[in-house]
Write a structure and sequence with these properties.
With 148 residues, the chain is mainly α. It has 2 domains: 3-88, Orthogonal Bundle (Hypothetical Protein Yqey, Chain: A, domain1), CATH 1.10.1510; 97-147, Arc Repressor Mutant, subunit A (Orthogonal Bundle). It is built from 7 helices and no strands. The protein has helices at residues 3-17, 21-41, 47-70, 74-88, 97-111, 119-129, 136-147. Helix 3 packs antiparallel against helix 4 (74-88).
């Protein structure tokens, strides 16, 4: 088992022993999504794949949080925020905007990218370099700005 999945499993056990039922529910939900993807793909997910799953789970919950907040459903918004906080504990430290911008500029220079036609190649490399540490939407926006 890879380190991230093992860390998730260990935290479930620790939370069960501490009788933290709400935390266990969230972690088991995430673990179930990971297992379902492994079954569907008939392969074991590595850490980068697990990070992708965690990012998607975070994005879903952040979208729900926005909707619940906009509709004054504070009870549901608090639940979503609780789940976001738990999942974030398994994510690597996020890069700040300056770090992302520097990485984008360095990659564009390294590849000699000059137009939007080069965006796919630049994004492909940056996605692997920033896996789980930066929002792909932000990276994409910065790459578009740099290549225009």
């Amino acid at each position: 088992m890879n380190p991230l999945k093992q860390s998730l499993a260990d935290d479930i056990i620790k939370s069960m022993k501490a009788h933290d039922i709400e935390r266990v529910k969230v972690l088991r939900n995430v673990q179930a999504v990971i297992k379902q993807i492994e079954i569907d793909r008939q392969t074991q997910l590595d850490d980068s794949d697990v990070l992708d799953v965690l990012q998607k789970q975070l994005k879903q919950r952040q979208e729900s949080l926005t909707i619940f907040t906009d509709n004054n459903r504070n009870d549901l918004a608090e639940k979503e925020q609780f789940e976001i906080d738990i999942i974030n504990q398994f994510m690597p430290a996020q890069m700040d905007d300056a770090e992302i911008a520097a990485l984008v500029n360095a990659e564009i220079t390294a590849q000699g990218a000059t137009s939007m036609r080069d965006m796919g190649a630049v994004m492909g490399v940056l996605k692997t370099k920033t896996a789980g540490r930066a929002d792909p939407a932000i990276i994409s926006k910065l790459v578009k700005l740099a290549l225009q």
